[in-house]
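User: My collaborator and I are trying to settle a disagreement about how two of our proteins should look. Neither of us wants to argue from intuition anymore, so we agreed to look at predicted structures for both before our next call. Could you fold the first one, then the second, and keep them clearly separated?

Assistant: That sounds like a sensible way to settle it. I'll keep them separate. The first protein:
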Amino acid sequence: MAHKSGLGFALRRMLGEAPVSGRSPGRGGETVLTNETRLRIFQSLCNRPCSHLRAISREVGVAPPSVLWHLDRLVERGAVRKGRLGNRNVYFPSGMLEPEDPEFLAFVRDGARLPAVLLVMERPGIPQAELVRDCGANSHTLAGLVARGVLEMIKDGRHRRYYPAPVLKQKKESYDKRARRFRQVLLSLFAQDGLSPEAERYDRTFLNVRVTLGTRAESLRLLCNPFALGARV
């Protein structure tokens, strides 16, 4: 019979995963986040969810084969999940996203799309020529964002003007409400892996938490709302 008490069960229940008998914490008692490289990868995925392998590699400064090996450990542990965008795998922390959202978020954050979206959010009604000039997006990128319902385009005489689609605001507001739950997922995961987390600050967008890694303490700043697209880490 599976053991249904303790932090390991509580964490798996929050993540929507069935408890597994005899695996506390992690696979065969392994604690994956006490490894500094894996902790950096996990932090990167919190702050840039739905990143692909090469983007993670650039962010943490570790070669792709090593990053992939660590990602596999995090996925096996249940700390990270894997989605798909086109022909690439993307990764995000477990418990962060609703099942229908990883592919949409990966699309928005991929390549030149995110700078274009952020600029439109900052300057609604921006003309296409100005948008292309200031963020480097091309007409194909903008057409894809409009087709996917991320941006809206309105013709104004000779100009094409771009506005954020309502879905972006709706997603952000929805995830504002569930960010507290994800905060608890993070704290439980860190505690289960023996990192002795101490929450220093939480504002529904970011969690600042102090963890113990070996003989030293480290402060992490982690995004809790994946659709707070303009939030700066």
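The second protein, kept apart from the first:
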Amino acid sequence: MPRLRLKVAEVRDETPTVRSVRLSLAGQPFSFKPGQYCLFAVKPGVVHALSICSAPGLPCLEFATRKSDSDFKKAFWELKEGDAVDLAGPLGGFTYEGGAGHAVFLSGGVGVTPIKSMLEAAVDRGESDKLTLLFSQPLALRNPLQTRA
């Protein structure tokens, strides 16, 4: 499995709770299928599987995740332009490379990241398939099991 050390090229807050990071490939070859993921290490021992959000063939790899209190997510949210991270991959078989005629993608929340890669790649290829995305954003609801004060 290929391993790469890449530098953060851009950090962007997509929403108040979702951040994306673009890593520069700096001319290094990296081949993947739309929908695959990598093991993303922000520092030694702080590793998480993240889907590649970007389409293949670009000079950067994009990853995004939702904010939380996990060690990985905290470290991901602290990344700055120029920081180095380690990747291992690509991994996974949840891919789409066209030819279905009509494909329907179902997603919720930040789970849209591998589908974003698939849809961008289909556009880049000039795909003639009909592509439909059904997306739902989870609502922030109070825990119904909590007792009222």
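Some points you might bring to the call about the second protein. The longest strand covers residues 3-15. Helices lie at 71-77, 113-125.
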